[in-house]
Structures are given as C-alpha cells and as structure tokens.
From TrEMBL:
Known role: Catalyzes the phosphorylation of D-fructose 6-phosphate to fructose 1,6-bisphosphate by ATP, the first committing step of glycolysis.
Residues of the whole record sequence present: 203 to 565 of 982
Family, per entry: Belongs to the phosphofructokinase type A (PFKA) family. ATP-dependent PFK group I subfamily. Eukaryotic two domain clade 'E' sub-subfamily.
Organism expressing this protein natively: Scylla paramamosain (Mud crab)
Domain Phosphofructokinase: 4-309
Residues holding substrate: S150, I151, D152, R187, M194, G195, R196, E250, R278, H284, V285, Q286, R287
Protein name: ATP-dependent 6-phosphofructokinase
Region (N-terminal catalytic PFK domain 1): 1-363
Residue sites binding ATP per the record: G11, R74, C75, G104, D105, G106, S107
Amino acid sequence: GKGIAVFTSGGDSQGMNSAVRAVVRMGLYVGARVYFIKEGYQGMVDGGDNIVEANWSSVSGIIHKGGTVIGSARCMEFREREGRMRAAKNLIKHGITNLVVIGGDGSLTGANLFRQDWTSLLQLLVKNGEITEEECKANAHLNIVGMVGSIDNDFCGTDMTIGTDSALHRIIEAVDAIAATAYSHQRCFILEVMGRHCGYLALVAALTSEADYVFIPENPPPENWSEKICNKLKQERSMGQRLNIILVAEGAIDQHGQAITAEAVKKVIVDQLGFDTRITVLGHVQRGGSPSAFDRLLGCRMGAEAVLALMEANTATEPCVISLDGNQAVRVPLMGCVLKTQAVARAMKERNWDQAVQMRGRS
Ligand code: ATP
C-alpha cells in the first residue's frame, strides 16, 4: 500500500490530535502504511526515532487531549535545501511519498516548496550515493495534503480552522469567570485575547459574552475612541450595570496603525472615569484545555478527507488543503489559499482593512 506520513507543524491548536487520529485510522482502513513524524519538520530532517509506523491503537485515547501529542516545532534547517534533502532521504528510506501536514500558512508553504523541489532533491541524493536509482524511481512523486491547525481562524479558504472553536470556549469561560468578580467589586476588566492579524477570536468572544467594547485589527476605532468608550461605559453604569468587560485583540491598532494595548485602554478609563480597572492577559490558556466537540469532529472529517485525497492523487494532482465550506469538508488548491492568506496580511499592514476583510471571505 501507499506510504503516508502525518505531522503537525508551527503553533499547536486543540483538535490536531483528532486530525492525526483520523489520518491514521482512515489510512489503515484504506490499506496504506501510515507513519507519524514527531516534532514537525525537525523530526523529518532528523529522522531516526522521529519517524514511527502507526497502528490502530497508537492513536487511542488522544482525541480528548489538547495540543498535539506527536509534538510540533519550528525548524530552520527545513528552510534550507540541505535540510530538505535530509528530510527527503528519511522519507524515501520508509517509502513515504504522501504527506499530510497540519499547521499554519508557513508550514503549508514549506510543504509546497518541498514538493516542487522533490525531483531535484532525489537526483542529488542519487548523485551523492545516498539513495539508489531504484529508490529514486519508486518514489518519484510526492503528494501533499494540508489541514489548517490554528486558533486564530486566520486562513483564507476555510470557514474554520482546527482549534478556533476550542479557543473561543476558553475565552468565554474566562470572561464568565471574570464577570463574576467584576460584578462583586464593580470593576472594569480589560481582557487581551490572541489573534495577531485576525480579530476573529476577539470579535466572536465579544458578541457571545456581552462585552461592552472590542478592539480588533480589521476595524480600527474612530480617532475619538477614548471619548466613545468612556461614554459607552458611563452609559452602562448609569443603567445599573455593575461591571464592564472590554476585549482587546493582541493585534488591535488605531487608524494610524499604532498598537492599541490593554494598558492604553486602561489608562484612558482610569484617567477619565476613575473606574477600578484591571487587565487580564489570557495568553496560552487559550490554547489549552480539551478540544471542543466541534474541533474534534472537524479534525475527524478533515483527516478522513485528507487520506481520500491522497488515495485519489496522481502525478498531475496539485497539493490541496482540506477546508470547511458551508459544513462540508472540501479540497481547495493549497497555494491559492496560502497566497491569499499572505495577501490579506499585506493588506492589513498597508492598512487596507476593507480589502483585507473582503479577501478573507467568510472566515
Ligand atoms: P503558525 O500559524 O502557528 O505560525 P505556521 O505553520 O505558519 O504556523 P511557521 O513558523 O511559519 O508556522 O512555519 C513552521 C515551519 O514550517 C517552520 O519552522 C519551517 O520549518 C517551515 N517553513 C515555513 N515557511 C517555510 C518556507 N518558506 N520554506 C520552507 N520551510 C518553511
């Protein structure tokens, strides 16, 4: 059967384990040999114990775990040709010519580059006597399928990325917990949530937690935001509300592209209203805890579809990512999505927010 390997790369997210499990079990079901590659591209470059053949029970009892049990890493060597050559050799020694990569746009870009390079890497390996002509012929084509694991929901081409829903659960739990103590002491709380270029987490958390105000990178507030927020908070208090909740995405900016930090918001409120104001930075708590039912199911569906895509692939098949489109797991061109995601990041940097939001589409 075909040799398939699955690995997780870049930042971890809840639901990655479910995706790994689905790839292994679907792969075995269709008669493939399935391998884990531990520690992302680093494990692929280092080989050895990092590449392990999987069986049905090696993915038992992981679906409920957060993070990624097979490890993730950032790997400088894979960015160089020399590193990719070592990775190619390690794969060929196991007869692996099908890769499932679970990661962000960087990881997917790396995978695409690896595939483009594959033929010349193999020729070099033959030339150096590291693999035989037969091994070269038997492993002539590399197939790639990606899945996006990210809590930020910042990838173009999919309605949801694996981990976003669980991160939202964590944020909502934290807001609810803080609201109770804020109520008791009539305090104002500012919560900083993750999302570098993408305000999805902050926006959806604000909508679902009755926050009074939210700052996101895609929609910088008007110049007089300090006046606006103070009026809003005063109004809430005058209607009998005992607390205020403000969410700030970590990438929030003003009209000039300057960061709006939780500290800056606090200063405005303390200086102008004198409210007892506290800051909570949620940080990596958002990546922790067990994956939600939604993320477990998303991982299952995407993982199964990824294997089907690999089984149907031929030498002419372009790499795809499995995306969620209106509750269907579908295949979309990998590089198209990566380029669009990078274009959105550029538009954000150039402060073309409307264009960025439009390009990002439904997600
Ligand atoms: P996150 O969204 O969490 O940042 P990511 O996949 O975008 O996830 P990166 O750190 O950008 O995270 O990439 C992960 C790894 O993928 C890198 O450490 C590197 O090994 C590989 N990689 C990224 N970009 C490239 C590239 N252009 N060429 C080769 N390899 C790359």
